[in-house]
Amino acid sequence: MTFSIETDGPTAVHDVTDRVEAAVPADADGLVTVFVRHTTAGVVVNEPESRLLDDLEAFLEELVSEEGWKHDRLDGNADAHLRATLLGESVTVPVSDGALDLGRWQAVLLVDCDGPRTRSIDVLVH
Length: 126
What we know:
alpha+beta, Jelly Rolls, five-stranded antiparallel sheet, three-stranded antiparallel sheet
């Protein structure tokens, strides 16, 4: 199953846990892989507390500078590609009785490093 999300801001974190769980069949047991089909976005599991999400955005922007990259000569978004590389394009989460088996404070987060854009996220149950 694939769903789309509209992101806001150049670096933005969105909790997609509910959308991922809605894509999991009610009787599913096993694993779910959440994959973003973009080279300037990533998927992580972490706490969706608003201040932490702000911190994550600021951390990525401070960790990778916006300027000075060779790829910028092509399309000006090397920083977004590099930030997404640090995050990774997918996560795998256990599923039990159709529900994501996340820890108490865990959520599935889409991190857009080159927004605002429409992002496609694939959810594969296996």
